[in-house]
TrEMBL record, chains A, B, C, D:
Signal peptide: none annotated. This is MurR/RpiR family transcriptional regulator. One of its GO terms (biological process) is carbohydrate derivative metabolic process. It comes from Dorea phocaeensis. SUPFAM superfamilies: Homeodomain-like (SSF46689), SIS domain (SSF53697). InterPro entries: Homeodomain-like_sf (IPR009057), HTH_RpiR (IPR000281), RpiR-like (IPR047640), RpiR-like_SIS (IPR035472), SIS_dom (IPR001347), SIS_dom_sf (IPR046348), WH-like_DNA-bd_sf (IPR036388). It comes from the Bacteria. Residues 5-81 form the HTH rpiR-type domain.
Length: 309, 309, 309, 309
């Protein structure tokens, strides 16, 4: 690929000659460049387990005039998604499709494991309590996080009385939908790299309005944490053009289960009411394959090939 | 809970006195009742590893007049979501919120592992090739599967020329959106228990129109497999009102990565074009936090607490 | 067209020989068959200005065994949209495209005029007051009425504190969104022929929950009026596959203006707050061409053809 | 109202002393300030029917240092929606709710009449032919124009093979949806004051890609016309916070009717296919009240009050 990122190329070419500390830094940058771009030299050293001066010398060794220029190169690496293609090439370029499948699933398992190890249980409990005590619950997630927000919104609506899924649609903008947010409300912001500036600004607004802010994001270094008093950290993965949101989805599942357990009676009432409504009012039959008879019939058809023409 | 399902209650009460084979059956039903409701006595025996007559005797032991009545009770168990509350109670009722978190995440890891073990690599490769060779790609997923469909649609649109996310909205119905589907097209149907009848019918239509049908569903027993020539199996989880779709999402990730690797040059071109368009035409700045400077500044603010009032 | 509706054909063939009263009936049926299908013989006579027995004899003259069979034929006429193609043929078949434009616009003017003449001012005032006094405002309109509902929802949200646009989307159904409707709320249902059964059922539910129900529909014969205590009547038009909703949109405009005048101070506050938010928080510039300078520059470009390559 | 716009206030205060030509200018500005902000002094004179020097002197009479400063004040008048509240006050402030209803409907009739008088028939025919000959048809309308775009999209989809409604949603941006637009395609842009910059930029992109561009907008002065080769002009109305889009909707109706007449056979085939699909595949009954029996029954219930409890 002609448009290979310069920094990645330098790291690749020099890798053989790197010291042990430099190799650690190189690995860290390849894996977490999105985070690396945030860090001061001291902080990066701390994360990787080398000294600040090792970091600075690493920058010079790569041909940069000091850490700031190196950091600028890191920024360029982050800037375009094109780089993710390069990273994909590195990760998946030489393996078969079958191996890609196994490799992606294994990587997603790792992300959930890392999430289990790093997530703060007291923060999770705080999130549950904050949601339970809120008057209105706003959920914001856009771009690749929109499906997560929509999924969470669907289930919270069965549990809590006033849930508002904030979406960007053809008619209205985010701020038109959160303009009435207040002290008694909670705003749940979901954002993973490449972080959404619109989500961040909505959280800033909510925070200024004294609303509670809960975030679901990928690290303590995430800008989403600035306005949040309750950060749920789940590992995402960027080794592809697709941002893997498997671990965040798992945390969403846990949130729904925990809320359900706290509001069991209300949820049962809601579900019972919905069942009654279906029976009494719905024109449509429920869009679900529930009747054993139907199912068996369908399965039989499949087995005997009745449907074949 | 007063409205405890009768069948579950019978199983619970009798469990201590069950034979080894009956315990296997009881466990199977508690875990996979949604599937159990489909099965003939012979097939259930096969799945669990007991004889058909053990299954029939188990039905009688529980107090039913033979297998058909027992199967009807299974159907009732499936029918309402209320039962998932009962199952949640069983699974999560006696543990703390922190343990719920760990338990859900661990369960999601297991589902991905089971998916890795059971998914057929040649089917995955067939899915990739079918998508690459299609003229138009239709993606259908509704209810809790809508976020998965939307996520897949977003990324496929960057890779393939004609991707149509079929959604049910206030204006149009599914069939109005797939009315022109033909032989050269592929329809990807995503459905997990409680299976969607509308998705099933759309796949039937696509199949009659000789379109290729790919399904992402939870088992070979899923009714979705009836009209599909290419079944991607991923484990979902119903031990909650929330259907965990973590493993299916991981398979979607793998699909996107594999397609990307096959169409690298096209994806690079698409992404480069999008970058150029942003630069040339967009009124808005990109909704992404890309500039190192900004990030550092934000991070600094956070560290020094400048934003605190 | 081979599939010409039998009843229309009979009317066309016999028209020359009809009595004056029969011609009136024939014209009424061609224009308002959708309504005609509702009416008893007595009622149809009343609407057209002929006696009940004239109506019954008309049915026999057309070759039907009495009024019930004739009414069944009317039902068939209504049943499929195909008939609207036939009606289009009748209305627009022999005129040029330019004349189609003039004819459609003229017809829309007539519908607004008829709406002005027939709409009940005290009902309009009741609608305004009911909306102003409601706790939550739900708006339901699906199929071709979805754009009207969305338009009304967008503006009401700027005026009233808790507006919920009920939509059918891939994730949730109507009843999941209105499950918490109560006595203090108002539900605004918008439905025109071909009336939506789902909207009707939602209004029935709202009515049983003692919520206020306001309807925007096309006549006092509309089934939507069953559950409504406040019916805004606006003329729609079905002389095409497209249901002209111009007059209903005009009534929506009037509703927004009247509400705005009643809540001027609140609307000003909302708009000012939105302006401030844009200035303080928005990453994006507003998506509106506001700056005179920009406009002039753009206009200049246009005039001088600077943009031409 | 304390925040009364300065320019409007000056006009109001001075009105009594204005010359006949100045009164014409004052009326024009109050009615069409959104357009006035675009115009040079010469052009404004031409529109109003006074000389350029009368316009310049009017600016001075109001206390501005010449026309450029006056134009800047016009820009401020346009800038915020707050002004529309003031204009509403002027138009509707002293009349009853009943009169508001009549006044809004009458104003909408006028807009359609003005549209009839000013729309160019050959442009309408060009639009119809361009749409019929296009490979793919993209429809763009956002903010208050989103319902119009959605309405047009719904019906075009029944007439033409490849219709893409471009919407801004939580997942994808406009440019991601039009990235493959090409020479054989048509892009229909709908935008009324306050014009959308995003729609404009999308049209610019389409134009650079040599796609045909059709616009539906409010005047030849609209910036939307810059990139369009086929401008459908329909009068909108801004005398409220709500932009009246009644006349544009009427033009959309005419477009659908004209296209239907040209593709009668295809539309019949599509509708027949949809009917068949309903019969063969739909789980749901059609969401329409079609059966005479049902209707009569419902109507009867209504009349006899059977539903009352």
């Amino acid at each position: 690929m002609g448009n290979k990122n310069e920094l990645l190329q330098k790291i690749e070419e020099g890798y053989g000659k790197f010291s042990k500390g430099q190799k650690k830094l190189a690995d860290f940058i390849r894996e977490y460049y999105d985070k690396a771009a945030f860090l001061t030299a001291a902080k990066m050293g701390e994360e990787v387990g080398v000294s600040e001066s090792t970091v600075v010398r690493f920058a010079t060794a790569l041909g940069y005039n000091g850490y700031p220029e190196f950091q600028k190169a890191l920024g360029e690496l982050v800037r375009t998604k094109l780089n993710s293609i390069q990273r994909m090439e590195v990760t998946y370029g030489r393996i078969s499709q079958g191996e890609i499948l196994a490799s992606v699933l294994q990587s997603d398992i790792e992300k959930i494991k890392m999430t289990m190890e790093s997530i703060d249980h007291s923060v999770f409990e705080l999130a549950v309590d904050t949601i339970l005590n809120a008057k209105s619950i706003y959920i914001i997630g856009i771009r690749s996080c929109a499906p997560l927000a929509s999924f969470l919104g669907f289930y919270l609506n069965l549990i809590c009385p006033d849930v508002k899924l904030v979406n960007t649609n053809s008619s209205s903008e985010i701020f038109e939908q959160i303009i009435r947010v207040g002290e008694q409300d909670v705003v749940i912001g979901i954002s993973f790299p490449r972080y959404s500036m619109r989500t961040l600004k909505a959280l800033e607004f909510a925070s200024n309005r004294k609303a509670k802010v809960i975030t679901l994001t990928d690290s303590v270094h995430s800008p989403m944490t600035i306005y949040s008093s309750c950060n749920l950290i789940a590992r995402s993965d960027m080794a592809s053009i697709v941002d893997s949101l498997v671990a965040p989805l798992s945390v969403v599942n846990a949130l729904v289960v925990a809320l359900c357990m706290k509001k069991q009676e209300e949820v049962i009432t809601t579900l019972e009411t919905l069942e009654q409504i279906w029976d009494e009012y719905q024109v449509y039959s429920k869009d679900e394959l529930n009747m054993v008879g139907d199912k068996v019939e369908l399965t039989m058809k499949m087995k005997t090939g009745e449907d074949d023409e």
